[in-house]
Design goal:
Blueprint: E1 2-10, E2 16-25, E3 30-34, H1 41-49, E4 56-61, E5 64-65, H2 74-78, E6 81-84, H3 96-106, H4 111-124, H5 140-151, E7 158-162, H6 170-185, E8 189-193, H7 197-202, E9 206-211, E10 214-219, H8 226-229
Parallel strand pairs: 3-8, 3-9, 6-7, 7-8
Antiparallel strand pairs: 1-2, 1-4, 4-5, 9-10
Helix pairs in contact: 3-4, 4-5, 5-6
Amino acid sequence: MISLTNVYKEYTEDQHVLENVSLDVKQGEFIYLIGPSGAGKSTLIKLLTCEERLTKGNLKIGNVDLIKLADHHIPEYRRQIGIVPQDIVLLSHLTVYKNLVYTLQAMEVDRKLIKGKALSALEKVGMLSFKNVFPTQLSIGQQQKVAIARAIVNNPKIILADEPTGNLDNKSAIDVMKIFYQLNQNGSTVLMATHNSTIVNTVRYRVLEMKHGKVVRDQMEGTYGLATDYRDMFVI
Ligand SMILES: Nc1ncnc2c1ncn2[C@@H]1O[C@H](COP(=O)(O)OP(=O)(O)O)[C@@H](O)[C@H]1O
Ligand SMILES: [Mg+2]
């Protein structure tokens, strides 16, 4: 479903932000992407969303070869993936429901289907009763749920999320994670960058650990591995 082969990415010459990354993700997998800041997690996600283009290598998602994908086909490609970006950007002058309608209209979804899709997405994230509320009236956790609803509004098979619980308290983080687990159980492939070691260690899925632009660990039902990573810092 997602296949990277010898992928390199540099923003400036001679500085590999991703170096020779190869990995395969099967349909229906749930993957935690972990690693220190600057490891390249967001860059990897941005290559998959075509927000950034790779420097060298091969990258395929489903039948789409992202190397060959022309810029003008990127919007159409993005409609098939759900993107939960690091920072929540909801339109503050529109209600929760209208935010989703706006997204569906931008995707040029058939007008007759828009209402049903918007309401169904809000139901999936438990925010249906907030449909007529404006984003500023919601907690950050609730806003994140709406952002997830927006990402899944057109039933994408792949969901990419960049630290979706980064700004949330524990309770909201668990609520938000439950949504992702549910979406995965309903068949979506989920790739999520996260720093939340408790979540990674508690609900075990495949862990991809990155360091200095390389995948240094690929472990089924993996752990966060915090003890190993930071051991040096505690030597006195
Ligand atoms: N647009 C950019 N231009 C130049 N360098 C960038 C850009 N985005 C990220 N980087 C650099 O790429 C490296 C990886 O960043 P990033 O993918 O954001 O890592 P992570 O998400 O793991 O923290 C960092 O050294 C960062 O400074
Ligand atoms: Mg990042």
